């Protein structure tokens, strides 16, 4: 799983890792959440992120349930990919919900929200646990600048309410660091996304 705040470069890292793993002969599957255009819950998430879902979009728990339902409906696809490939790379997973929800609520990771979310996604929905999570660490200001450039270059990629909230992004980066620090759900590896990423070194880590 590849995690990080908006604009951290997760999609780019996923593509580079996929190429690096394939060059080593590994069979690689990949995916991303939310699954916009594939799942109704993901499409509702998009509506909420652009302020078109009324009070539900303002509800941290309500949005978290939509994210979780998208993953629940996509879980069999994840399991199938795990059966068929040596490595499966997923851009955003359960930890994203934990980090952003806790950040929105100004809660620590040992607070009520993350405990509730673990019960929902892991215990009740039974989502597959990650084997390894890569945290792409980037200063929030750097990530924000990247998100702006992406929005300018991709006509259908206007920045959403989360992406334009600098305070939220900073808190989310801190929550991610805390999750990684306690190995939440699995071991984590921190990757410095502000400099040139050693993809070959990461391939070694992923392949174990």
TrEMBL record:
User: What is any one of the record's Gene Ontology cellular component terms?
Assistant: cytosol
How is this protein named in the record? Answer: Thymidylate kinase
Reading the lineage from the top rank, the first entry is: Bacteria
Taxonomic classification: Bacteria, Bacillati, Actinomycetota, Actinomycetes, Pseudonocardiales
Q: Say if the entry is tagged with keyword Signal.
A: no
Which NCBIfam families did the record assign?
PRK07933.1
Residue ranges occupied by any Thymidylate kinase-like domain in the UniProt entry: 2-162
User: Keyword annotations for this protein?
Assistant: ATP-binding, Kinase, Nucleotide-binding, Transferase
* GO terms, biological process: dTDP biosynthetic process; dTTP biosynthetic process; dUDP biosynthetic process
């Amino acid at each position: 799983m590849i995690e990080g705040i908006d604009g951290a470069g997760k999609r780019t890292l996923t593509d580079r890792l996929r190429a690096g793993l394939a060059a080593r002969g590994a069979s690689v599957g990949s995916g991303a959440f939310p699954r916009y255009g594939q799942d109704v819950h993901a499409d509702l998430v998009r509506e909420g992120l652009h302020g078109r879902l009324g009070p539900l979009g303002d509800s941290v728990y309500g949005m978290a349930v939509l994210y979780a339902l998208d993953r629940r409906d996509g879980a069999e696809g994840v399991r199938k990919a795990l059966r068929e490939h040596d490595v499966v790379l997923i851009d955003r997973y359960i930890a994203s919900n934990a980090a952003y929800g806790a950040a929105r609520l100004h809660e620590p990771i040992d607070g009520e929200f993350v405990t509730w979310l673990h019960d929902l996604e892991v215990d009740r929905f039974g989502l597959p646990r990650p084997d390894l999570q890569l945290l792409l660490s980037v200063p929030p200001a750097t990530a924000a600048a990247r998100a702006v450039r992406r929005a300018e270059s991709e006509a259908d990629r206007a920045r959403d309410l989360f992406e334009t909230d600098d305070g939220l992004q900073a808190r989310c980066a801190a929550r991610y660091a805390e999750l990684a620090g306690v190995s939440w759900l699995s071991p984590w590896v921190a990757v410095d996304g502000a400099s040139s990423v050693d993809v070959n070194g990461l391939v070694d880590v992923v392949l174990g």
